[in-house]
């Protein structure tokens, strides 16, 4: 069986590639490799999420499970004066994300290796943005949702994307159970973009 894209230390033989990508009026290039998620092209769910994302200037943003860095790097370009932390459990993805931050001239993002929220244990964000690792299992995805409130500022949002056929609706219910409500803010190509916001108690 093939190796999972969320292996901590991928063993797959290197197959470096470069992807060019344009979104929201900005052009980016990304180095990718075997052993990381969606290495041949930007995932359509990720693309939909980026089209929906509403971020403002000077915001603190977490790209959880950053892969080779698409979400965090685009967010860094969109948030004037913002700061972006990108994390992933996959060492090869983290190395690529660091390369891609530099290659795209981004100076307001940093990449940290580690499991779920561990690399940002003491931090709270304006946005947590994630294309969750559905294949890593329900336990991992549940923790992304259930531990999000501890890492969001009041008024901060958790943004997730999932395929309708891979449980986007049940994911939305889990978000609503944790936060009180969750919205579908965009849909297309078989995906739904979900957003929920941390309200005052
Ligand atoms: C669906 S991919 C999305 C990658 C990237 N954000 C994108 O949109 O192309 C999910 C990412 O989560 C990472 N991941 C899986 N389990 C994780 C965990 N426990 N902690 C942190 N990252 C994890 C995987 O290595 C993978 O890069």
What structural keywords apply?
Rossmann fold; 9 strands; 201 residues; alpha/beta; globular; 26% helix; binds S-adenosylmethionine
Describe this structure in words.
There is one protein chain. This protein is of the alpha/beta class and 201 residues long. The protein has a single domain (43-197), classed as Rossmann fold, CATH 3.40.50.150. It is built from five helices and nine strands; from the N terminus they run ββαβαβαββαβαββ. It has a seven-stranded mixed sheet, sandwiched between helices. It has a two-stranded antiparallel sheet with strand order 1-2. The longest helix has 13 residues, at 91-103. The protein binds S-adenosylmethionine. Residues 5-6, 37-38, 43, 46, 65-67, 70-71, 87-90, 93, 115-116, 131, 133, 136, 140 line the site of S-adenosylmethionine.
Q: What's a concise summary of this model?
A:
The chain has 201 residues and is of the alpha/beta class. The protein has one domain (43-197): Vaccinia Virus protein VP39 (Rossmann fold, 3-Layer(aba) Sandwich). It is 26% helix and 30% strand.
CATH homology-level superfamily: Vaccinia Virus protein VP39
The unreliable regions are none
CATH architecture label name:
3-Layer(aba) Sandwich
Q: What Rg, in angstroms, do the CA atoms define?
A: 16 Å
Task: Say which molecules are bound, naming each kind only once.
Answer: S-adenosylmethionine
Strand order, largest beta sheet: 5-4-3-6-7-9-8
Helical percentage:
25-40%
């Amino acid at each position: 069986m093939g190796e999972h894209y969320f292996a901590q230390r991928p063993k797959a033989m290197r197959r470096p590639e470069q992807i060019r990508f344009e979104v929201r009026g900005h052009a980016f290039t990304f180095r990718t490799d075997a052993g990381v998620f969606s290495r041949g092209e930007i995932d359509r769910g990720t693309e939909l999420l980026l089209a929906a994302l509403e971020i403002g200037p000077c915001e603190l943003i977490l790209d959880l499970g950053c892969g080779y860095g698409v979400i965090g790097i685009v967010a860094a370009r969109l948030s004037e004066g913002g700061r972006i932390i990108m994390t992933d459990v996959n060492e090869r993805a983290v190395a690529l994300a660091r390369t891609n931050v530099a290659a795209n001239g981004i100076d307001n993002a940093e990449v940290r290796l580690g499991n779920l929220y561990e690399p940002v244990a003491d931090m709270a964000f304006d946005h947590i943005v994630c294309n969750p690792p559905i294949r890593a299992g329900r336990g991992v995805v549940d923790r992304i949702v259930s531990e999000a409130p501890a890492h969001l500022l009041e008024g901060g949002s958790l943004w997730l994307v999932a395929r309708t056929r891979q449980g986007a609706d049940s994911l939305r219910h889990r978000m609503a159970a944790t936060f009180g409500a969750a919205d579908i803010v965009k849909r297309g190509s078989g995906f739904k973009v979900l957003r929920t916001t941390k309200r005052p108690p």
